Amino acid sequence: MGNECVEAVGPGGSRVVVAHAARTDVGRRRTHNEDSWGASFPTYFVADGMGGNDAGDVASRVVVDTMCDSLAPGEFTTPALLSTAVSRAALAVADLGTGSRAPGSTLTGIAFQEYRGKPCAAVFNIGDSRTYLLSEGSFEQISVDHSEVQELIDAGYVTDVEARALPHRNIITRALGAGSTRHVTADIFMVPVHRGDRWVICSDGLSGEVTDALIEMIVRHVKDREQAADELIAQALGAGGKDNITVVIADVLEAEPEWGQSSTGDETVDNDVTVNSAGDADSQPMEKQQLADATRVEEQHA
Fold first, then answer.
1. How many whole angstroms separate alpha carbon 170 and alpha carbon 68?
2. What's the pLDDT band for 254 if we cut at 50, 70, 90?
3. How far apart are CA 180 and CA 104, in angstroms?
4. Rounded to 10 degrees, what is the CA torsion of 211, 237, 65, 148?
5. Per-residue pLDDT tens over the stretch 156-178
6. pLDDT at 152
């Protein structure tokens, strides 16, 4: 299940205390769980093995093992190290097999970094698992789904509400493995970290069953992170539980210096760097910059 509190101090003087809770459930229709999760500072993330593809559970576990092995535990990471970790995970899953039913997985989560002596979280995403943030009174989805439905929403053809009823909402446009390119790239969004932030990272077994409004209500009002995770799982099961369900909640209990305080540099996050899974990265983070093209992959739901 997972529940751990970690304090970390970065080389530039940033300090955070992060506690997490994690839950996963096979759901009501699947016979085994193809979701995996990782929660060891500096990174907290979910990997959803491709339902209907061969060895989806193996693919998601390979993602978790590779990501954790690639990042030093208990230490702030860097854009280059995160980029390399994602690249290694993509290659490891691609090596599991080829073809239309090759093992595949999504990946989304956060990795704590520093920017000019202040704490940041790099949100990384491949596929349609999601990363949400409750911060300073605002709740929003930070990751952007790589799916055909999201493309329809972005083009203005359907609303978020209408999209939930579309029959092809399980078709994703980017994945690790699943017969796609070996060098798949991730969206990486850099977000300032504040004391009191609550990160919610989940597979589509949660977001596909429970509306964003209900997710927000639970994580906003259920203060105990373990109870909040349990309630999210219960709501997804109550809505049908058609897929495996996984959620990781990471609470930032302390973060310093605050972004409103003076530090070694500016108080804003620059937008002028591209980070990709080939391992190339500048030392400055960015906000919501999307990278690379995609290969369409369909998740088969039992």
1. 28
2. very high
3. 9
4. -40
5. 666 666 666 666 667 778 888 87
6. 66
pLDDT tens by residue, 15-74: 999 999 999 999 999 889 999 999 999 999 999 998 555 688 999 999 999 999 999 999
Taking only the tens place, the pLDDT of each residue in 73-114 is 999 999 999 999 999 999 999 889 877 778 899 999 999 999
**What pLDDT, on a 0 to 100 scale, did the predictor assign at position 286?**
40
Q: What is the pLDDT of residue 260?
A: 77
Query: Are 246 and 210 within 8 A, CB to CB?
Result: no
CA dihedral angle for residue 147, residue 153, residue 156, residue 161, rounded to 10 degrees = 150
One-letter amino acid at 20 equals H
**Nearest-CA neighbor of 198 among 261, 270, 127, 121?**
121
Structure tokens at 294: 């995609």
DSSP string of the chain? --EEEEEEE-TTS-EEEEEEEEEEE--SS-SS--EEEEEETTEEEEEEB-TTSTTHHHHHHHHHHHHHHHS-TTS-B-HHHHHHHHHHHHHHHHTT--STT--EE-EEEEEEEEETTEEEEEEEEESS-EEEEEETTEEEE-S---BHHHHHHHTTSS-HHHHTT-TTTTEES--EETTS-TT---EEEEEE--TT-EEEEE-HHHHTTS-HHHHHHHHHH--SHHHHHHHHHHHHHHTT--S-EEEEEEEEEEEES-TTS--SS-SS--------TTS---SS--SSB-------EEPPP-
